[in-house]
Amino acid sequence: MSKEFVDIIYLISAVLFILGIKGLTKPKTAVRGNTLSALGMLVAVVVTLLHRDVVSYSWIVAGAILGGVVGGIAAKKIQMTAMPQMVALLNGCGGGASLALATASYIMTMGSTGYGSGFAGLLSVLFVLFAVFISAITLSGSGIAFAKLQELISGQPIGLPVVDIKHVNIGLFSLSALLVILLGFSPDSPFLFTLLVIATVCLGVTLVLPIGGADMPVVIALLNSYSGIAAAMAGFIMGNSVLIVAGSLVGASGIILTRIMCVAMNRSLTNVLFGVMAEGSEAIDADEIYEGKVTSAQPEEIAMILETAKRVVIVPGFGLAMSQAQHAVRELADVMERRGIEVEYAIHPVAGRMPGHMNVLLAEAEVPYDKLVEMDKINPTFKDTDVAIVIGANDVTNPMAREDKGSPIYGMPILHVDKATTVVVIKRSLSPGFAGLPNPLFAMDNCLMVFGDGKKTVTDITASLDLA
Fold this sequence. Notes:
Elements: H1 3-23, H2 30-51, H3 58-77, H4 83-109, H5 118-149, H6 165-185, H7 190-208, H8 216-238, H9 241-265, H10 269-273, H11 286-290, H12 299-307, E1 311-316, H13 318-323, H14 326-338, E2 342-347, H15 357-364, E3 372-374, H16 375-378, E4 387-391, H17 400-403, E5 422-427, E6 447-451, H18 454-467
Parallel strand pairs: 1-2, 1-4, 2-3, 4-5, 5-6
Helix pairs in contact: 1-2, 1-9, 4-5, 4-8, 5-6, 5-7, 5-8, 6-7, 8-9, 12-18, 14-18
């Protein structure tokens, strides 16, 4: 198989990757985009295995079978509520693979012919070292993100008992940069290389520890970008152009998505990169906000209100994901539409625990794509909305972000559900969201709280409305 033919196939694969990512930008073309990207990767892998000198296919086949079985089972068994954890694990696996490749390259080259001399040799060393740097951070950082999302450790910001974790991050980053420089001039040093791996793995841990659950969408997007950059570095090490292209695409798109998430949460990208949380004010007393001001209601009462409504906006949040209420919500919407009620869904970019979380859940329930309205477009319409039904969306509807300058979330764009004539909040309790703040919305005169499981509550409302 000639090099020219392989390059042409790699180019076709790269085009499929680009078309795939383009398709993923819209719900209607997402499935096709995913298929094109998978096809591009399949073609690239097959051509690479046929083109490269392979000592034995036994381990490759065994790995492909094992990975395929694990991936297939995960795709079937993992619930959508656990998808953020799954993405974190996949990012970590990508980082781990790139770290293993860079380490193997260093071990095989050290003590033999070396990386060569001159600028080309220095460049080869730097590719390996940078691959170690970014992939080790991705591996350990993704592990901490998984542990937070899976609630194996606290989802709240975690610091260190003796020293400010920001100073630890700066120290580890400086040490890692120094080790990269030293190894660039003197690569034949196993001790320094091992120290670099340890320092960067620790840096990944300390970068993610101080980031709370409310910032997990940003962390996932950022780690996804890291895994792409690590893959691109692995491509440089292997001399594989399609891996460079694929990794660069993932890295660039991940950074763009991270920036979008930062704007949506009013976070500085620099602060996210170095694990710095926004400074908050003193603790806010929830009892002072809620006591004697919260009005609760039953599903039957909500059904009576919906009978006279002309426009209803449904606001999905993580509570919807936890209760798996997406199908129940679709059934409620169908009943309302049969009664002539206009129904739309307000989508906040960081609702849930990962970008697009609500879009995927509602698409699973076959909610029409044109019913999903982004925050900027839906906000001006709340003043003309009869009922806004909020299902577990806490921080993204918190008026503190708009009105309380002392709040840690002040300036974060939110859904202005409080402007609707009536707000119905379906929630298990008055417990705070990931930001750990009470929500004054719950105590407003036009807000009715329906306490209970999201799926059951929505089903009860649908049953009562259907009988009316």
